Amino acid sequence: MMQLERSGHTRSTEIDLALFGALGDLAQRKLFPALFQLECEGLLAPSTRLLGLARQALDLQGFVTQVESALRTYVKAEELDAKALKRFKARLDYRQLDFTTVDGYTAIRDWRQDGLERPMVVYLSVGAKLYGDICRHLEASGSLDDQCRVVVEKPIGSGLESSAEINDAIGAVFPESRIYRIDHYLGKETVQNLIALRFANPLFGTQWNQNHISHVEVTVAEKVGIEGRWGYFDEAGQLRDMVQNHLLQLVCLIAMDPPANLDADAIRDEKVKVLKALKPFTEDMLGRDVVRGQYMAGSIDGQSVPGYLEEDEANTESQTETFVAMRTEVANWRWAGVPFYLRTGKRMPEKLSQIVIHFRQQPHYIFDPDQRGLAANKLVIRLQPEEGIALEVLTKDSGLDKGMRLRRGPLHLDFNSAFPKARIPDAYERLLLEVMKGQQYLFVRRDEVEHAWQWCDSLIAAWADRDEAPRRYPAGSWGPVASIAMITQDGRSWYEDY
Ligand code: BG6
User: Fold this and answer.
1) Which residues of 372-395 are buried (b: 16+ CB within 10 A; e: fewer)?
2) How many Å lie between the centroid of ligand 1 and the Cα of residue 153?
3) What is the set of domains in the chain, with CATH numbers?
4) For 371, which DSSP code?
5) What tens digit of pLDDT does each residue of 221-238 get?
6) Nearest-angstrom CA–CA distance, 126 and 97
7) Are the C-beta atoms of residues 278 and 310 closer than 8 Å to each other?
8) How many Å lie between the centroid of ligand 1 and the Cα of residue 173?
9) Residues belonging to the active site
10) Cis bond leading into 155, ω under 30°?
């Protein structure tokens, strides 16, 4: 049951879904559109019902209108099939609920009466501070049985200690086998492809270690700023918001050993080993191995944008980072001595998530000495915007005058042009489908969250000791100059072929 499917989609099993925070940004922008796409693909079981829960007083018609308007905004017009929309709207129900007191929760229990034979999935699209209360109230009101699953969003806490408290509160009601911690990067098609690429291709299987790979780059760059989320973001910062979860999950999938099979726990056990092997930060590593940045006003796509400290509701003294670059190492037999360069930031010139695996050069070089720098293969795995994989290889340059000059070019697999009919599903479509099917391999286990926090806490503590302001970078640039210096001091540069 827990095993990753080897042979494609099946319709989700019959479930009911109760969505806390149903009028919030994530639900409207991502969750309803994703559920609707599952409807269009025929992947929602006919009896599945969707209950929206939020604080606002709204009747069912008002809620349905709101969901429909979200779908019209966030689903492409040509994908908004009228029949599917009608079926989808018929599944919806709504209850107004104050999440913090147990009183109204019997409404969920009563709603379930019609569907007791089906498991209920409870999706908490609300701040993590509420997770404990909601779980307790669900239990106290008799809304749960031993088939119910709970889905929670990151970030879980702001460090190891607070995350343990939140995990304890959820764990007091739900066993680990029924807790689904979302990291939406794990639902992205190309991220899952890392598993296929690494473990289905013997070519990479034999090369994937420190004997053949010189270094690894992971870039997750965003054009957007903090999008009106000052309150949340200023407490979190880019390390907690992006590195602790998304970037470390990518590092795990790149660095993990082959799992014995595709069981959720076999995969997650291997990921945990990577997290445990990450070298902790100490204060003396800060200047050399880590760069914190914060964006100033600048311009993106020709439009002026304000600096972080000028955003709405900004605390103009804030020292929160909106950019982090770091060099780290997975200290084990496979990876010892291979730097992993990570960088992520807001207000960069491009939206780009990309992994670059740099292979080592040949031991003996026989071509033009001027071209020596070219002579290594790179595997470029692009997660977004255009999903694809390119292997940079060297061939002979064509032409009578070129002799044995080398030319670098990609063996290129662009998913959109290679498989034009295949719509690339949004990460949330896959994740919701997997929860409904009761499969946990794309969700983060408690020990993963905690080891990731432990490592980030070492950096947060080192930053606190040093008490240094983040380095400024203009919006629309690739971050502080120091992040370029960090990698050039190793005789390398960030991959720039976008
Ligand atoms: C979220 C972060 O988890 O991921 C946001 O909280 C960030 O700050 C977003 O913008 C990026 O996701 P994606 O899928 O657009 O790369």
Assistant:
1) eeeeebbbbbbbbeebbbbbbebe
2) 12
3) 16-153 (3.40.50.720), 187-422+466-497 (3.30.360.10)
4) G
5) 999 998 888 888 999 999
6) 13
7) no
8) 29
9) 246
10) yes
